Every structure is written in C-alpha cells, then in structure tokens.
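User: what does the whole thing look like in 3D?
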Amino acid sequence: MSDGEEESSFLSLPNSVLQRHCLTSDLSETATSEQQQLLIQTLQERVCEFQARLRNEDAAKQLLQTRDHQLNHDNHHYEEHSSFNQEPQEQLRLNCVQLNQAVSSTGVRNSGALTQRPLDFPSTVQVSKIHSQEQLQKDEGEQLALITGLCTQVKELEEKLVDQTQEVERLRSELGATDLEKQLEVLESENQRLKQELRASHTQTSCPTAHCPHSQDVEALRGELCRKGEECRERERRLAALEQQVQDRTGVVVQLQEQLEEVAHHRQQLQKQLEEASCHRSQSEDQLTSRLRDAEEALSLQAAQPPQVKYVTKTVEVESAQCKQALMEAQARNQALQEQLCVQRQLLRELEQQLHESQRTSGQLRQQILVYEGEMERAQGQLEAEMQSLEEEKNRVIEEAFIRAESEMKAVHENLAGVRMNLLTLQPALRTLTCDYNCLKRQVQDFPYMLEKAITEAKQEICQVIGEVSSANQELLRKYKREMNLRKKCHNELVRLKGNIRVLCRVRPVCAGETDAADTKNIVTFDLDDDAVLYLSNKGKLMTFELDKVFPTQATQEEVFQEVQSLVTSCIDGFNICIFAYGQTGSGKTYTMEGVPEDPGINQRALRLLFSEVCEKKPDWDYKITVSMVEIYNETLRNLLGDNPNEKLDIKMCPDGSGQLYVPGLTEFTVESVEDINKVFDLGHMNRATACTNLNEHSSRSHALLIVTVAGFNSSTGHRTSGKLNLVDLAGSERIAKSGAEGSRLREAQCINKSLSALGDVINALRSKHSHVPFRNSRLTYLLQDSLSGDSKTLMMVQVSPLESNVSESVCSLKFAQRVRTVEIGPSSSSRRQAENSSTSSSPTHDSVELDSPPVTPVPLPISRASSAGSTLSSTSKTPSTRRRSHSQLSADSQVDRSSPLVGDGGQDE
Ligand SMILES: Nc1ncnc2c1ncn2[C@@H]1O[C@H](COP(=O)(O)OP(=O)(O)OP(=O)(O)O)[C@@H](O)[C@H]1O
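Assistant: Here's the predicted 3D structure for the full assembly of 910 residues, as structure tokens:
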C-alpha cells in the first residue's frame, strides 16, 4: 500500500465510521460529525499557527542575511587593513568568508528546514498512520541530528577561532615581550645612558678633546653609535607598526568573534524555538491521539450497547429527513475537507521535496565544511610556519643586533675609558699649558716694549759693529793691499832670483819611425842627481851642458808647464813675459808650445791657468784677456786671426807722440773659456795653412807668436795692471851649410838666421848694458821689444833631438842656450843676486819702496819705441823701468851682469 492510499484511507476513516454509525445509530453519527467539526477547527487553528511561525522564520532568515552581509563587510574591512603576511591572511580571510557564508547559508537553510518542519506535523497528525508517524519521527530525528552536528561543527569552528585568537594573542605578547626584546630594551637604555655620558664628557672636555689623539676614534664611534641608535629606532618603529597591525587584526578577529557569538546565540534561540515547536507539536499530537482514542473508545462503547431499534426506527423515521439533510451537509463538508486534504497532501509533498533538497544541501555543506576545514588547517599550518620563520628571523636579527650592540658597547666602553684616561693625563698638561699660555701672554704683552728696546740696542750694537767692521775692513784692505804687493814682489823676486832669462832644455823622445834608422843612436844622457845637467856624446867626446833645468825624454807636458807657470802668474801681476821655443827643425818646439789635442802644450795650459787665476781674484779684480796670433815669415808680419791671412802687417809708432809702437790692423780676440781658446787656435791654424802649400815645412821656416794680453782692474783699490805673455814657436835653427838650401829656401834660412841672430844680439846688448840694443834688426825683436826689456822675464826652452844625426845642431843649440843662461846667471850674477838680497834686507828704505809700490802697467801693444830709440843703455832700460820707478819700483835689470857677451853660435851662420 502506498503512502497516498494510506493517507486516503486514514482520511476517509471518519467518514466510513460515520457512515457505519449512520446505518446503525443516529446518536453516534451526530457525535461523530461534531467531533469532525471540532477536529477540522483544530486543524485550521494549527495551520494558522504554523503559518505565523513560518512568517517568524522568514523574519529570522532576513535577520541572518543581514548579519551575513555585515560579516562580509567586516571581512572586507579586515582585508583592507591586513598587510602583515598577506598571502596566509588572504587565504584565512577567504576561508572565513566562505565559512561565514556557509554557516549563514546553513543557518538559513536549517532555519528554512526548521520553519518547514512544523507544517509537517499537522499534516502528519491529520493523515499519517502510526508507522508513518514513526517514519516522520525518524526523519525528524535525522534532521535534529543534522542540526546538532552543524551546531557542533559551528562550535568547533568557534573553538578553533578562539584558539587562533589566543594564538594570535600569545604571539603578540611574545612579540612584545621576549627575552631578546627585553635585552634589546636594556641595551637601548644602556646605549642612551652611554650617549648621555659621552655627550656630557664631550661637553666637559670640548677643548682638550681637540688635542686628544683619540678624538677621531671617539667621533667615529659616536657616528657609529648614532647609526646604531637610528637602526634601533627604525626597528622600534617597525615593531610598533607590527604591533599596531597585530592589534588591528586582533580587533577584527574580536569583532568577528563577537559576530560569531551573536550568530551562535541567535542559532541557539532558533534551536530553542525549534525545540519548543517540537514539544508543542508532540503535545498537540498527544492531544489528538488521546482525542482519537477517546473517540474510538466512545464509538466502541456505543457499538457495545444494545441497539434500541424501535426508538431508532422511530427516530430514523421521524428524523430521517433531517438526518438526510445533515448527512448531505456533512458529506459536503467532508468533500470540502477532502479537497483541503488533497491540497495539504500536495503541500506536504512539496515540503518533503524541500526537505530532500535541504538534506542534499546539508550534505554539500558538510563537504564544503570539510574542504574549508582542510583549507583552514593548511592555512593555519602556513600561518604557523610563517610565524615560526618570522619568529626565527626576529630572534636572529635581535641576536645579531644584540651581539653587535654588545661589541660596540664594549668598544665604546673601552674608548670611553681611553678618553677618560686621556682626560686625566691631559688635565695636568692643560694646567701646564695654561701656565705657559699666561706666561707667553705676559711676554707678548711686554714684547713690543722689549722689541723696541732690543731694536734700539741692536741698532746701537750694529752701528758699533759696523764701525768696527768698517775700520777693520779698512785695516784689512790696507793689509791686503800691502800683502798683495808683498806677494807680487816676492813672486817677482822669486822669478828674478830664478833669473830674468831662464834657459830650460827638453829632449824629445825617439819617434816610432826613427828607431829602425842607422843613425838613431841616442847620444843624450842625463845626470840622475842633477836635473840641470845634460851629457851629449859628440864624436866620442862627452860634452856636459848645465842649464836651469833639463827635461828628459819621458817628461810630460804638465811637468814642463810646472816650470813655466810662475811666469804666467807674473803676467797677471803686470809683467811682460817671453817664452821661446828654440831648436832645430823636428826637435819638438811645436809639440812643447802647442802640443796635441789630447795633451796640450804651454799655450793652452797657460791660458787655462790665466782663466783659473783670474777667477780666483774675482770679484775684487776684473780681468780682460785678449789674444792675437802673428806669424813672421821672411821678415814679414802676418795677422793669423784676421780676415785676410795674406795681408802684411807693419809695426808703427803711435801718432800721439808717446813713443809707443803698435801694429795697425792686428786682430785681438777676447777669450773667456777653453772653447774660445780652441776657436782662436783653430782660426790661426787655418789662416796659417791657407797661406802656404806645405804647412809642416812652412811652420818650420816661420816664427809663430801667440800674444796674450791680460788687463786687470781692482774696483776696490782702483789699481790697473796690464801684462803681456808672448809665446813664441821659433823657426828651425839648423845651419844653412848643413841643410844645403838654395833659392827661396836659402832666403828663408837667411831670414831665420837673421832673426835668431838679432835675438842673440838683443840679449847680448841687454846683458852687456850696451847703450844700443838692436831691437830693430829683426821683426821678431822689434815686435818683442817691450817684452825683452826692462823687468820683463824671458824663458828659453831649448829643444834637443836625441838622434846622433842631429848631434851637431844639438851641440849648437845647447851652446847657445848655455851662453844665454850664462849671461844672466853667471857666478858673479849669482853672487850679486845674493848681495842684492843681503842689500835688500839691509836697505829697508829701498825695499819698502819696492814692496809698497803696485806693479806698473807695462807698455802694451802698440809697442813703445822709446827704448829702441834710446841711444844709451840707461835710456833703454830706463824707459819702462822709469815708468815703474815712477811707481816706486826698481828694475832688476840694473843688476844684470854685463860681462858675458851674447855672440854665440846663433850668429855663426851669418
Ligand atoms: N816630447 C815629445 N814627446 C813625444 N813626441 C815628441 C816630443 N817632441 C817632439 N815630438 C814629436 O817629434 C816630431 C817633431 O816635433 P815638432 O814638429 O814639434 O818639431 P819642431 O821643432 O816644431 O819642428 P819644426 O821646426 O819643423 O816645426 C813630432 O812628430 C812630435 O810629435
């Protein structure tokens, strides 16, 4: 049997019962219709009552929707304010929203189910049988179990929410007050305290700190400290922001919790209402059941009573019309009730469909709840992991900051201790400095007065010292002049003692090309004990020659120059000097005078010595050195430094009537260095070479003169000096008979012999004090007139060849040299010089006159002719000497021994 059939039978039960009663008894039918009416009224009242409850449930549903909307709004607000751990929070928020929606929908649907359930009971009460009632009770129990399960889940979710809230609170409390944070706070407070101490110490020691060696360290540490403080403050700000976020989220969670509590409370109210409705339904059910039972009992009692046929028949007969009418009406009402019952059945079926849908929705919601729970657990796990990592990160950062702050604090402490120590050590120094400063301040205040006083005293002292120095300077200058004159005189005397005419001899070595020849036997020997003696082996006889000095073959250019440099120095003092190189051709005259580039001779060394001497006398003396080069060939005078080397020069007398000679057109070059000398020598050699076809032969047949003039001026004394150094490379002295010359060679030889003979005559005349000195017999003596007369000094370097083939010429040269030497330094002359020395010492007046007199400027080129023009010796020796004597200087020439005539071998050829 189906449910519809059961319900139909159940609903039709009263009618069948009534019909049966109507057939059996009119009383029972009347009672049944009244009961049915009462039942119908009761059912109608219950329907109205459940409709009112349905409206209440709709109102509750709207209230729940409103709260859901508020929850969504709060969740949205929570989402907007969430910035910490965005992803897990977002997930949590979505889960909460879904959960809330699920709870809301579940609540709504449950409430809907609950609101629909009371409608079931009247229908069930009216139409179901006992087993149908049990089925309904079973369904109701399932729904109640479902609601209870949902409530349990809601409670669990609430508990989880509470747990999460507590966890958040715990984390927030941990964030706010961990040990590390406490340590950090302690460190920060300690940091602040140290900063204040450091600031105070810095304020107290602002001045000493400027000199503190650790000030830079302190400044650096202070900067580091400020930086760390900034970091701490930044972290504090971040921590405060995190706390603020946590507080905000906590507030949101609390709000959500409150809303959930409200929802739960409302749900509990609804549940109570549901329970009340269930209770009320069960009561109504019980009442209906009892009434039905009473009605059945009444029917059974009525059926059990003996039938009263008569009365009934009568009654039926009497009341049949009325009963029929009532029956019709009852049937009509029954029909209406059946229609209503059909409607209610239809409604019941719809409600059952809704119940099924609600059950299906509940299953889906359960699954969603499970899904949400899983997601919530996962989100919670992620949140816990994130919180754990954040916690670890926070602890690590705090530990690092703590360690760093500790080390920095230690360093700051150490530096502070150092600063304190420095302060302690600086304080005494500061006191000392203060005392020194005060002392210096007083000194500075007194300084102007002291300075003025000191300046005045210094001025006086300086004036006094200047006066003393000036007088001492004058005295020194006077002494200097006296000493200079004395030195000159001494030097002059030394040179004079050596002889005004000195004769040296130099023997050249055997040259490389001469060693293989047959006549290369060395005929010259020397005395090892006496460097003035030379032995010459001539045809088996050993001839001895004594000269002033003999240079052996191995003598160097420097050694030779050592012997002549005193004469060069005399030139600076204003004396005229003549240095001759005499000897046969190839005996080494040019080598001695000019030398070779790598080993220069007397000419260049003399000029170098002049330069060095002149430099030493600066700045008192200012010297000018000029150079001329002249060649005399065949009694012709040629200017070797001029533009035209073939131009012939002449010796003329000055037109001013002074009687001095000069050489018009003679070129002079001022030289100041060795480079100038080399240039002049190169120019002279070049001009000499252009005027001849064979330079070697030409040089052998001509005299070469290098005339050096040294003019000095003393700016201190105003004195002037002028000396002339004549360096003469004479032509070869070999005899014509031996050379066998003819023609031009014969003329050359005649000119050479003439000039050499004239030189011998001049020296002889000077020696003999002849009234006439034949200077004009040759161009050579005429040109050297002023350098051969007076107190001039002459050095004759006799060059000798060591070869046997040249022995006769060597003998002639040596005899000539020895006679020249004899003229000056004969025994009588030496004794006279000694006597002169003794007379010098015994004649102070004469000596004082000589010593105190400055050197007289000798007659420069142009050459004075006064001596040669003089007819007597006195006049000859007088002219230059007189000039010197006019400057209180006596001529040594007056002491010359005139006993030995100079008519030697040099004139043998004539
Ligand atoms: N002391 C010496 N040491 C080395 N070589 C020397 C020396 N003297 C001369 N000679 C050499 O002897 C040679 C002849 O010398 P030098 O030309 O100087 O003679 P001279 O007398 O000037 O001849 P002339 O009258 O022809 O000019 C040269 O080659 C020179 O180098």
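In plain terms: Residues 508-509, 511, 583, 585-591, 699-700, 732, 799 surround adenosine-5'-triphosphate (CB under 6 Å). The chain has a mean pLDDT of 73.
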